[in-house]
Specification:
The chain is mostly helical. 85% of the residues lie in helices and 0% in strands. The longest helix is centred in the N-terminal third of the chain and has 76 residues.
Length: 198
Amino acid sequence: MAALSPPHAQPPNDPDLEVKVKKALERVSENIHISANEPSLAVYRLQEHVRRALPPTVSRRQHVTALHSQLQGACYDVEYALSAVRTMNGAEEKFTSLQELLKSAIFHRQQLKYEQTRRKQREPSMYKRLSSHITSIDLPDLPDLPDAFRETASRVESALQHARSSYENHTRKERERGDKKIETEDEDDDEVTEDDMS
């Protein structure tokens, strides 16, 4: 009986089958290893991509927000300017009335200057009248008075002559200045009226 049933029979050795089984097991273990490490590699790649792409993206976003605020301010300025221009169309009548008032004011100013120059030419000043009266006063010789009185009289006479000459020089200079001012103002007024007429 023992001869009839052999103990566990061993399969025959097939080297080709063993090689195929080893290759299959290596592939399975490699696939298991890759599938186990693949998520961490993907996360590392994502982290690298975020580190590279995030700072320029943030800076561009900040730049875009700054440009947006500037553009919004420029839009507000343009709207205010347009509203101001639209309101200026309604102020045309006021500008024309102002222009007419300026023309009339310039005309009246020219008339006043002309009248002032005519009065200056017609009427002599109070100082001129006083100086003409002073010249007609002659101090008599006083032989009976002492020398001190004569000396004071000569001093008064010299002071009067000096005052008269300085006054005449002053009035002459004032006339020259007035004539120069009148000429320059007339030239300025002529230029203003030519600009207004144009």
